[in-house]
Amino acid sequence: MDDEFGAGYSRVVASSLVLAGVGDRTAEQALGAGVPPRQVWLALCDVQDVPPERRLGRDVKPR
Question: Considering the entire predicted model, what is its pTM?
């Protein structure tokens, strides 16, 4: 989430944005209830209109 939204804003989004795709819970609540992280991330991406090409995170080349 930090890569997509920044360190500060990602915390706000995780704790306050209600996601219909995970039972009308915030990301924090959904994770706490045992919803798989990938499902939470994809629900968040849908709501925030994250383009498909950025949903897998940024590419980091091995050293």
Answer: 0.86
